[in-house]
Amino acid sequence: MSAPLTLIRLGDSPLLTREHIPGMDPSGVFNPGAVRVDGKTLLMLRVQTRGRRTFCMPAVSEDGLGFKVAAEPAQFFGLPDMHVFHNYDARLTMLEDQLMVVTALDTDKGCRCAIWKAAGHPANGFAGLERLEFISLAGDQDTRNAVLFPEKIGDQYAMLHRPNQTALDGGPISGSAIHCCVSDDLLNWQDRGEVMGGHFHFWDELIGSGPPPIKTRGGWLHLYHGVATHFQSTNIYQAGAVLLDLDDPTRVLARTQNNILEPRQSWELTGQVPNVVFPSGATCSDTDREGFAPEDAILRVYYGAADTVIGLAENTVGAIMAACHQESF
Fold this sequence. Notes:
- This protein is mainly β.
- Helices cover 3% and strands 48% of the residues.
- It has helices at 266-269, 317-323, and strands at residues 8-9, 28-37, 40-48, 54-61, 68-69, 75-77, 84-95, 98-107, 110-118, 131-137, 143-148, 157-163, 166-167, 173-174, 177-183, 190-197, 206-209, 214-216, 219-228, 236-244, 252-255, 277-284, 298-305, 309-316.
- A hairpin with a 2-residue loop joins strand 7 (84-95) and strand 8.
- The chain is globular.
- The two termini are 28 Å apart.
């Protein structure tokens, strides 16, 4: 029997819980960024205290399953003069041999996305993630869910992000479209417009980028989250995938009609925010000499569950690409 065109959970229990965070008694650990560096898997965890303060905690693993969490939160340096309430949801990308981090900032001016470089000492075992140095803000608009492409497209750096333009009943503003922006120098960013929008009345009404895109010979494979808001009882967060053109990432080649991961386990259905699977980190088991992920490579997806714990699911790159070729809307 062939594997289903969905992400398959590794086990029936969360991968990481608050009990894994040393020296703290947090309310939750969730929405991790992920990357492979020198054969090791690095995560940047979002840790929320019982005072609802947010920290980013590095973690490292030899096998991508058992993680050592840093004893202290990551330290961020160089942010421009602005009042930041929370710095969270780190997305990790290797770009030109430099480990890059993009975080969301809740500020007195709204939500912004900040770009950082890992600048800690590699001997500490966390690939420099214990110290982050500021590079730039991804523009001056209210936005979230920003992820860097792992290489230049043409002669420019590229990033996906989700402008916050939709008001939720009783909640914060969100977004129903993913945009692409570009930069010559990682400092100044220009928006190139909408890449894809949500599907009103279906599983992905509101959307936002998940992990950074994976380069395949069929296009940039990108996971995203979709929110179904038409159920009056609660919002439901799920995961989907899309293939973007290698040379023009504003061009959608194919997209999943169905979600490829949805809340089903008790720890995905119940928590600080119920009914949530939120893909935020991914690693690929292999790339060829030209940097493409082969279709038989294993894509591991690290995701936040109910804003309380972290789950892990996987499938082959080819299976997720095949899911993108379902009949589109």
